[in-house]
Amino acid sequence: MLSDYTWDVISKESESLAKRFNAVTKNVANANTPGYARRNVSFEDQLRKVMEQDKHLHMTVTDEAHIPSAPLRISDVHAADFKIFDEQYRLDLNNVDPEREMAILAETRMMYSAFMRIAATKNSTLRSVIAGR
């Protein structure tokens, strides 16, 4: 299949949102575990940098040994899963706030739903073009 920028963004976004779903479910499952540090998944900043790279001046990589100043392609974006230790929610050092996790889960679900609608619209458009309508 030919590479399409929109499909690449949708694919990376849905993959990263699935990792965030995983992290939130781990957080909720361990809400009563003493000493558990909540997990967070971050990828939006990397994806935004790739999508806006034409607007910014960045260093040119002329050799494979050079370190790029930012991700250059959507495939270079990786969802970073990390533990947050510096927040305290309870006295037993567990920092999972169930209300916050439910809000993150709702936001993630809405974002995932929006991207799936975009994918469905794109798919419908492609089917119409192929069918010649």
Question: Secondary-structure map with pairings?
Answer:
Blueprint (H helix, E strand, L loop, with lengths): L4 H25 L9 E4 L1 H8 L28 E4 L14 H34 L2
Antiparallel strand pairs: 1-2
β-strand amount: 5-15%
Overall pLDDT metric: 85
Shape: flat
Counting DSSP H or I runs of 4 or more residues, the number of helices is 3
Which strand order spans the largest sheet, edge to edge or round the barrel? Answer: 1-2
SS-based class: mainly alpha
Description:
The protein has 133 residues and is mostly helical. The chain has three helices and two strands. The protein has a two-stranded antiparallel sheet with strand order 1-2. It is flat.
Which labels suit this protein?
50% helix, flat, 3 helices, mainly alpha, two-stranded antiparallel sheet, 133 residues
Short description:
By secondary structure, the chain is mainly α. It contains 3 helices and 2 strands. It has helices at residues 5-29, 44-51, 98-131; strands at 39-42, 80-83.
